[in-house]
Amino acid sequence: MTRRRVTRPTALIAALATALLALSPVAGSTSPAATRGTQGSYPDPGPKPTIVLVHGAFADSSGWEAVADRLTDRGYPVLAFSNPLRGPVSDGEYLRQFLETVPGPLVLVGHSYGGAVITNAATGDPDVKALVYVAAYAPAEGESVAAANQLGGGHTVVTDHLVVRPYPGAPPNDADAYIDPAWFHRLFAQDLPRDQARFMAAGQRPGALGALLIPSGPPAWEEIPSWYVVANQDRIIPPEAERAMAERAGATTVQVNSSHVVMMTQPGTVTRVILDAARS
């Protein structure tokens, strides 16, 4: 197992962390979750990788709940990363430093803009064994999220329906962007109940407008095996662009009839794809 760099806390925090890790399911294979047998026909390959779930813009980690529950039930340690939503390179570096505190093999799963973040974070990390893109961006080096939307000849109107608000310390001409709540259901989650989408619209986390235009760094998918779930009814990322990015990355690809929030509408399918990646 590759030893990962961990930041140096104070002696008291280090002692507390050691004690907590000894009791945590992530720490080893002695917990009930870690020793539970894997469901399905796959043989148990041994120590299970930690699954790191990364949300995108206009959302938060709660969207992963159904998938996380299924993975945890199968004995996988799961972490749902809180994405800063400021730019693929800086957010990727934030995730990279977060991963340095997590021991053992890793599988990174990104939804939407979260795909651009895992693409940057995993480059050169030998402990990341697989990447899973869930209706997500998998940009090439130098490619922005906005440019990736144009791959395959598709089109999205989401940028026509944004509410823009300032945030402290923003670079010149930058601001936070939200999807207009009046459009959130029909653009982001048209196959979820309207009441559920209404609350998601009220609680959405904004992404910086500048993040749409920042060029991505060297992509991890060039060196790490990838899987991709294409949402054929996506109105945020054009499905044509998703298919183009999946093909370019050489990803094992599954296509489903779902809105952008495929991890919420098709959690069983998304979980199976993640398990395939984790067991590979």
Notes on the structure:
The chain contains eleven helices and nine strands. By secondary structure, the chain is α/β, with parallel strands linked by helices. It has a six-stranded parallel beta sheet with strand order 2-1-3-4-8-9, sandwiched between helices. Strands 5-6-7 form a three-stranded antiparallel beta sheet. Strand 1, helix 3 and strand 2 form a beta-alpha-beta unit. Helix 4 packs across helix 5 and helix 7 crosses helix 8. The longest helix is centred in the first third of the chain and has 13 residues. The two termini are 17 Å apart.
List the helices and strands and how they pair.
Layout: H1 11-23, H2 32-35, E1 50-54, H3 65-73, E2 78-81, H4 88-99, E3 106-112, H5 113-121, E4 128-136, H6 145-148, E5 162-165, E6 176-179, H7 181-188, H8 194-202, E7 207-208, E8 226-231, H9 239-248, E9 252-256, H10 262-265, H11 267-279
Parallel strand pairs: 1-2, 1-3, 3-4, 4-8, 8-9
Antiparallel strand pairs: 5-6, 6-7
Q: Which blocks of ≥5 consecutive residues have pLDDT under 50?
A: 1-44
- Cα end-to-end separation: 17 Å
Q: Determine the fraction of residues in helical runs and give it as a percent range.
A: 25-40%
Q: What kind of sheet is the major sheet?
A: 6 strands, parallel
Summed up, the helix count is: 11
Secondary-structure element pattern, one letter each: HHEHEHEHEHEEHHEEHEHH
Radius of gyration: 18 Å
Shape assignment = globular
Mean pLDDT: 88
Structural class: alpha/beta
Give the tally of β-strands: 9
Strand content: 15-25%
The strands making up the biggest β-sheet line up spatially as 2-1-3-4-8-9
